[in-house]
Structure formats: structure tokens, C-alpha cells
């Protein structure tokens, strides 16, 4: 069933455009291989596993690459400029603005538990971390360079040649830079959340209120979309199932200033990939693991707190209103989903 549900998907996205060539074919593929949106797959929520078969040397090399501005064309930005470990490898700004680049059209997502995702990006445009890394590197608004340019630069910087020679028999080569970075990305798992310990039988790992929140999460239907080990990440769904998505109206209901919108087609979600009307505002259902660490929320970072996004979900996705204590219990449940960041394996 998995294979059928999670069919391969290799697409160009608006925010991280890969080469123009073949874009039409990839779009056609997207149409043909659309995964289901219904909750017919309802995966059970399982604890995150510990076991990982990663190469420790390459992970460490990838960690250094992640921190290095030599990976950007103008040598001013590293991956860590936008993805901060203490914030679950996300960023506190709704739209992140770093050196000489436009503010990001979308909120910087967490990188925790990437190895368990089936799709990457808010609109799920990629199904492979290596292909995603290619597009990041080439995107002028992110890194703006090429692997071979990075290889040439690293070859002249002290220490890299030796480190690559230790990690790869072929040494410092463009494809090995990418492989080390991807190995590091796959290492960013955050197991051992209180909820995982509770799932494994430790009844006192979460509070009574959080347990009540979990039951509400199930009974109110959140789990029909936020399902499986990641509590999300395996379906595409519209933002605004029961009510049309309207950020200005949302801000008003929340008594908040509307977030300054960044004009972008990325707002349109999967529509930018498929061009189909029904894909407007359809996004990958985000994983709720570590969600307490990754404010602000939604693809545009327009919602500041978990309490508010939970109310929005109930209203816009389920057509329900939650009582204040129900909202609070669900937030307490979501708080139990923060795992422990692990260093290199
Ligand atoms: C200028 C800020 C910025 C920089 C620099 C940056 N990213 Fe990101 N990253 C983002 C944004 C914004 C998104 C979401 C884009 C989207 O969904 O279309 C993202 C998405 C991702 C994702 C997908 C996560 C998911 O949930 O699917 C991965 C993986 C990732 N970045 C890794 C990296 C790596 C590796 C680097 C360095 C090579 C990097 N990023 C550099 C802003 C940045
Ligand atoms: C119909 C599917 C669906 C249902 C039901 C649903 N969600 Fe969501 N949820 C989504 C989608 C899609 C997004 C991402 C929307 C966006 O980014 O614009 C999301 C986003 C979120 C976020 C923000 C995550 C982040 O990183 O920004 C939280 C928290 C959340 N949902 C919790 C809940 C809770 C709690 C419930 C039940 C009250 C619920 N959801 C019900 C589909 C759903």
C-alpha cells in the first residue's frame, strides 16, 4: 500500500526551481502520481525509532558543511543562517531575511526527522533529499551556486581536502559534498519525546491534561490528517477545508496585526506544481513533532502561537469550535511532542 500511496514525485517547485528543462514532463508526472488526500491511509502514531545506519564521519563532515558560508555563492550565508538547531532547525521569523537575499516567501520549516519524510517542502515538491539539495544550492535566493563551484572553493580552504579524503575514497568531489550534507540532514532526528515514552508504556511521561488532549486530537479528527509516526508529513491537504483560507480574516479573529505578506505564488501550495484549481492552498500536512519549538505557524508563518493555530485548525479544517480547556489540553499534548536533539551518531 505504501508504494501506491507514496508514489515517486519529482517536480520543479516555484520557490526552489530546478532546471526549466523537463518542467512540463514533471508536472505531468505530478498529475499522474498524485497521492491520495483522504484519510483512508490512517497510519497509527508510533514512537520514533532510535536505530540509524549512518556514517558518523560523513555526518560530522556534513555538519561542518551545514555551518559553512562557503556553500553560498557570495560566501555570506550557510544553511544554519536560516535553520537554527535550538529552534528545531527552523526560524522564529515568519519570513526570514538573510544577507543580500529577499525574505523567504515561506516560513522556514524544521529539519528534525527528515529521514522519515516522504516529501520535502511545504508543497511536497521533492521526494528525495539529494534532489532537494541540488535545488537549494542552485536557487539564487538561497545558496546561489553549484556543487562544482563549492568543490573548487573548499579545495582552496584549509582542512577540507583531508577531511573528505578520510570520509570518501574519491575525496573532495562535488557529489561527495552533497552526499555528506544529505547524510547530516538524515541524522537530525529528535526521538525520546515525552509522548514517545508514553507510547512505549511510561504512563507518567505526560500529564493527565496532555493525555486528554491526545484523546481530543483523536476524537475531534486532527489525527485523520496529522497521522503516522510523524503526526503528519504523509498527506496533502487544503488549508481551509471547511472555510476558505483568508489570512486577513484569520488575523482579525485572532485580534492580531496581519503579518506583512510576502507576495508570492508559493502561497498557492501545490497549485504551483500542477496548475490544477483544486490544488490551490493545498500543502503537505506538516509533522507536528517538535511543533512547540517551531513557532510561528503555517506555511506563511502568519500565526504566532500554538493556541491560535489549534483554534484555526479546528475551525478551518474540521468546522468545529473548541472550548478553551479543550484547546489548552490539545496544546499541552502538542508540547509533549518535543524530542531530544541528538548529536552525531
Ligand atoms: C535563506 C534561508 C534558507 C537557507 C540559507 C536555507 N534554507 Fe532550507 N529552507 C528555507 C525555506 C524558506 C524552506 C521552505 C521552502 C519551501 O517549502 O518551498 C526550506 C526548506 C528546507 C528543507 C525542506 C524541509 C521540509 O520540511 O520539507 C530542507 C531539507 C532544507 N531547507 C535544508 C537546507 C539546507 C541543507 C540548506 C543549506 C544548503 C538550507 N536549507 C539553506 C530557508 C532556507
Ligand atoms: C484536513 C486536514 C487537517 C486536519 C483535520 C487538521 N489539520 Fe492541522 N494542518 C493541516 C495542514 C494542511 C496544515 C498546514 C497548513 C499551512 O501551512 O498553511 C496544518 C497545520 C497545522 C499546525 C501548524 C504546523 C506548523 O508547523 O506550522 C498545527 C499545530 C496543526 N495543524 C494542528 C492541528 C490540530 C490540533 C488539529 C485538530 C484540531 C488539526 N491540525 C487538524 C491539515 C489538517
Properties at a glance:
Cytochrome Bc1 Complex, Chain D, domain 2; 14 helices; binds heme C; two-stranded antiparallel sheet; disordered N terminus; mainly alpha; 345 residues
Give a structural overview:
There is one protein chain. By secondary structure, this protein is mostly helical. The protein folds into 2 domains: about 1-185, Cytochrome Bc1 Complex, Chain D, domain 2, CATH 1.10.760.10; about 195-335, Cytochrome c-like domain (Cytochrome Bc1 Complex, Chain D, domain 2), CATH 1.10.760. The chain is built from 14 helices and 2 strands; from the N terminus they run H-H-H-H-H-H-H-H-H-H-E-H-H-E-H-H. It has a two-stranded antiparallel ribbon with strand order 1-2. Bound molecules: heme C (2 copies).
What is this structure, in a nutshell?
The chain is an all-alpha fold and 345 residues long. The protein is built from 14 helices and two strands.
Sequence-ordered SSE layout with sheet pairings:
Elements: H1 2-5, H2 23-32, H3 56-67, H4 79-82, H5 129-138, H6 147-156, H7 160-167, H8 174-187, H9 194-199, H10 208-219, E1 236-238, H11 247-253, H12 271-274, E2 282-284, H13 306-318, H14 324-335
Antiparallel strand pairs: 1-2
Bound molecules: heme C (HEC) (2 copies).
One heme C binds next to α4, α5 and α8.
Amino acid at each position: 500500500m505504501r508504494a501506491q500511496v507514496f508514489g515517486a514525485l519529482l517536480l520543479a517547485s516555484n520557490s526552489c526551481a530546478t532546471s526549466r528543462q523537463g518542467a512540463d514532463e514533471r508536472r505531468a508526472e505530478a498529475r499522474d502520481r498524485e497521492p491520495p488526500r483522504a484519510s483512508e491511509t490512517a497510519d497509527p502514531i508510533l514512537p520514533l525509532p532510535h536505530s540509524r545506519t549512518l556514517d558518523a564521519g560523513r555526518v560530522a563532515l556534513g555538519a561542518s558543511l551545514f555551518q559553512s558560508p562557503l556553500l553560498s555563492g557570495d560566501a555570506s550565508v550557510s544553511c544554519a543562517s536560516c535553520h537554527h538547531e535550538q529552534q528545531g532547525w527552523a526560524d522564529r521569523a515568519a519570513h526570514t531575511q538573510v544577507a543580500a537575499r529577499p525574505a523567504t516567501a515561506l516560513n522556514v520549516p524544521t529539519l528534525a526527522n527528515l529521514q522519515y519524510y516522504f516529501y520535502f517542502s511545504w508543497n511536497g515538491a521533492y521526494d528525495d533529499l539529494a534532489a532537494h539539495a541540488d535545488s537549494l544550492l542552485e536557487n539564487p535566493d538561497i545558496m546561489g551556486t553549484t556543487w562544482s563551484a563549492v568543490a573548487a572553493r573548499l579545495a582552496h580552504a584549509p582542512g577540507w581536502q583531508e577531511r573528505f579524503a578520510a570520509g570518501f575514497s574519491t575525496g573532495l568531489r562535488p557529489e561527495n559534498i552533497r552526499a555528506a550534507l544529505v547524510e547530516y540532514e538524515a541524522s537530525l532526528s529528535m526521538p525520546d519525546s515525552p509522548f514517545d515514552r508514553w507510547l512505549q508504556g511510561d504512563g507518567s511521561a505526560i500529564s493527565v491534561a496532555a493525555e486528554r488532549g491526545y484523546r481530543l486530537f483523536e476524537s475531534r479528527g486532527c489525527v485523520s490528517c496529522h497521522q503516522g509516526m510523524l503526526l503528519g508529513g504523509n498527506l496533502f491537504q487544503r488549508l481551509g477545508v471547511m472555510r476558505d483560507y483568508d489570512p486577513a480574516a484569520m488575523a482579525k479573529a485572532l485580534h492580531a496585526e496581519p503579518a506583512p505578506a510576502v507576495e508570492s505564488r508559493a502561497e498557492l501550495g501545490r497549485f504551483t506544481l500542477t496548475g490544477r484549481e483544486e490544488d490551490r492552498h493545498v500543502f503537505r500536512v506538516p509533522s507536528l513533532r517538535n511543533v512547540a519549538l517551531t513557532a510561528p505557524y503555517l506555511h506563511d508563518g502568519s500565526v504566532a502561537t500554538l493556541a491560535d493555530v489549534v483554534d484555526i485548525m479546528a475551525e478551518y479544517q474540521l468546522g468545529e469550535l473548541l472550548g478553551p480547556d479543550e484547546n489548552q489540553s490539545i496544546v499541552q499534548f502538542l508540547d509533549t511532542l518535543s524530542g531530544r536533539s541528538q548529536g552525531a551518531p
